Amino acid sequence: MLEDDFSDVLRKAKRGVEIDDEALGNATGLAPARISDWTRGDGIPSDDEARALARVLRLDPGKFADAAAQRWHPDVALPEYVRHHPHDPHPSNGYLFFLQDGKTAALIDPAGLPQTLMNAIAEGPYALRYILITHKHEDHCDATADVARAFPDAQIVMHRADAFAIGPLAAKALPIVDGDELPFGDAASIRMLHTPGHTDGSSSFLFRSTLFTGDTLFAGSVGGAAGDRSTYGDILDSVRTKFFALDDATVVMPGHGPPSTIGEERAHNPFFTSR
Q1: What average pLDDT does range 246-273 have in this prediction?
Q2: I need a labelling partner for 93 at 20 to 30 A (CA). Which of 131, 210, 217, 273 fits?
Q3: What does residue 18 show for φ and ψ, rounded to 5 degrees?
C-alpha cells in the first residue's frame, strides 16, 4: 500500500503551489465542491479531470491520472544487506543495513519502541557503527537516547538544523555535510545528502545502490513541506538534482510506505514531469 493516495498527492500539491479549491476550480472548469471532496478522499476524478487538475498544479498529467485510478504500485525487494523493522506505535519505517561480514551495521532512524530496535540489532547480532537520523520528527528519532545508551560506541549522524530534537545528544552528533562520505568497513562508505524541504535538516543516506530517503521521497509521492525556512520547492529540487542524478536501479527505502527505485519514481511519481 502506498503511503500517499490520490487525495494526499492532491492536498500536498495544492498546498505547495498555494492554490485553494475555488481558484483551482476557476482555472480548470471543475466544481470547487468536487475538488474539495476529492481532497478529502471522497471519490476520484476521471482521467480528463485529473489531467486538468495536474496542469494547474504543475504535476505530470498522465502520472496524476494513474495515481487517481491506482494503476501503479512498485514491486521492489529489499536488498540482501538491508533489514526492515517497524517503528510501532509510529507508522514509519526503520532499517538496518550491514556489511558483507554480517556483523557491522548502521541503523536508520531510531524511533518507536526501543525493544523492537534492540531485537533487530540483536538478531544479527550486529556491531552498531552508526545511528543515522533523517530528520527531527519524533516518529524518526524518539528512541535515539535508548539506542545510544545501549550502543555508546555508535556514532550519531544528524543535520545540525534538526539535531535539537535529540536533546543533549546533539552535542555528540556528527553533522551532515552534503556529499561527504562516512567510512564504513575497509572499503565501503555511506554518502550523506542534505535534502531539505520536509524539514530544514532533512537528509538522506546512500549506501551502495540503496538510498534511504526519510520523508523526502515516498513511492509515488513526496513528503509534506514542514520546514521553517525550506520549502516545497526545496523538496522537489532535492529529488530532481540529487536523487534523479542516481542510477535508475537505485533502490529507494522511504520513511513511510513501500520501497521503490529511482527509475520507478522517474516513470510514475506525479510530482515530476516526464521530459
Answers
A1: 98
A2: 273
A3: 60, 60
DSSP secondary structure code for residue 79 in this structure: P
Cell of residue 254, nine digits? 522511504
pLDDT digits (tens, 9 = 90+) for 129-138: 999 999 999 9
d(CA 238, CA 231): 11
Distance CA 106, CA 62 (A): 38
List the domains of the chain with CATH numbers: 6-69 (1.10.260.40), 82-268 (3.60.15.10)
pLDDT digits (tens, 9 = 90+) for 109-118: 999 999 999 9
Secondary structure string (H, E, C) spanning 194-248? ECCCCCCCCEEEEECCEEEEECCEECCEECCCCCCCCCHHHHHHHHHHHHCCCCC
Neighbours of 102 (CB within 10 A): 11
Cell of 215: 520523508
* CA–CA dist 181, 12 (Å, integer): 32
CA distance 201 to 142: 16
pTM for this predicted structure: 0.96
In whole numbers, what is the pLDDT of the chain averaged over residues? 96
Question: Residues, the chain, total?
Answer: 275
Residues 36-40: contacts with CB under 8 Å, at least 24 apart:
38/6, 38/7, 38/10, 39/7, 39/10, 39/11, 39/14, 40/7
What CA–CA distance (Å, rounded) separates 112 from 139? 7
Q: Could you tell me the CA-to-CA distances from 188 to 36, 175, 184 in Å, in that order?
A: 49, 20, 5
- Residue 163 is classified by DSSP as G
What are the tens digits of pLDDT across the range 3-50? 999 999 999 999 999 999 999 999 999 999 999 999 999 999 999 999
